[in-house]
Amino acid sequence: QVQLIESGGGLVQAGDSLRLSCAASGRTFSAYRMGWFRHAPGKEREFVAAISRSGGSTYYADSVKGRFTISRDNAKNTVYLQMNSLKPEDTAVYYCAATSLFTTQSPLYDYWGQGTQVTVSS
Q1: pLDDT band at residue 107 using 50, 70 and 90 as cut-offs
Q2: Most CB atoms within 10 A, among 7, 21, 87, 100?
Q3: Strand (E) positions, the chain?
């Protein structure tokens, strides 16, 4: 079992950067693929980025390609989401999640954090 806690959200202006962190507890963190999702009010939860167990493979939603970078440090049991050139439409609660598959489909993720709020003002 893996427990996930997100941090690093906040209020920024368009064009600014944030780095979100997801700290995991559990002895098998390195065995999981990790993903970031976001959920804005009035919208469906959407996939943002995913990373393989070793960190060698990544996948991004088209809306964040070139701006966001997902990474992981298995020695620290932590996954990161570096967000650059933030836009107002990036405003959402951001969640990290763990899955035994390399997937963008949220129903296939087994463990979820509580989320961290990111607000981008224009």
Answers
A1: confident
A2: 21
A3: 3-7, 11-13, 18-25, 33-39, 46-51, 58-60, 68-73, 78-83, 92-99, 111-112, 116-121
